[in-house]
Amino acid sequence: MSIKIVVIDDENQIRRMLRIALASEGYDVTEAENGTQGLAAIVRQQPDLVVLDLGLPDMEGHQVLQELRSWSTVPVVVLSVRNQDREKVRALDAGAQDYVTKPFSVVELLARVRVCLRDHIKPEQLPVIDDGKLCIDLMKRQVTVNQREVVLTPKEYAVLSMLAASPNCVITQTQLLNQIWGPSHTTDTHYLRIVISHLRQKLGDDPTEPTYVRTESGVGYRLSVTC
């Protein structure tokens, strides 16, 4: 099962940027534009982490955090333009794990997300694919073939991690494109074909008869492993 993150922010551009950045790291992202939608998404998705903006249109982010902490211990990374120490202390005292001030570096945010997840997710919650030749460790974000590390681009890793989260199951092209490239790219299958081709090369797959990344004609792709 892939790591699920709920992003609660009323700014479309921020949500889109976060979805693209987080999806490129292999995370399963759900967006919400206000506190009510955000709490509902958390109940529905049971995420591993929440990214929460404090300035929401229907309720204060602090209210969302207070409500959330009454029934969930899911880690929360707060985003806010408020850079006063008292706001940071208030959010942390209310149960947030981290506080990031806007504007922020995407690289820094991703690093903070990784730290929160590392501290709160048990390794056994994430699958390790190991068939003796190919090893995919989603917790360590490491891929090896014959014990040699494979260097992947963010898009290549995002695709492979989605497939590895449900080994031997078909993931549709639409699911992959929507999650990794975004809803506006669900028909851009050529993007996906290029990444799949590169993945097969790096994993040592025969492009005519691939062992690992298999095409399900007209539907999507499947990571075929025995482990």
Automatic annotation (TrEMBL):
A GO BP annotation: positive regulation of DNA-templated transcription
InterPro entries documented for this protein: CheY-like_superfamily, OmpR/PhoB-type_DNA-bd, Sig_transdc_resp-reg_receiver, WalR-like, WH-like_DNA-bd_sf
One Pfam family in the UniProt entry: Response_reg
Annotated compartments: Cytoplasm
Cellular-component GO terms for this entry: cytosol; protein-DNA complex
Location, primary (coarse class): cytoplasm
SMART domains: REC, Trans_reg_C
Annotated keywords: Cytoplasm, DNA-binding, Phosphoprotein, Transcription, Transcription regulation, Two-component regulatory system
One MF term in the entry's GO annotations: cis-regulatory region sequence-specific DNA binding
Name the UniProt record assigns to this protein: Transcriptional regulator
Native organism: Photobacterium halotolerans
Upper classification of the organism: Bacteria, Pseudomonadati, Pseudomonadota, Gammaproteobacteria, Vibrionales
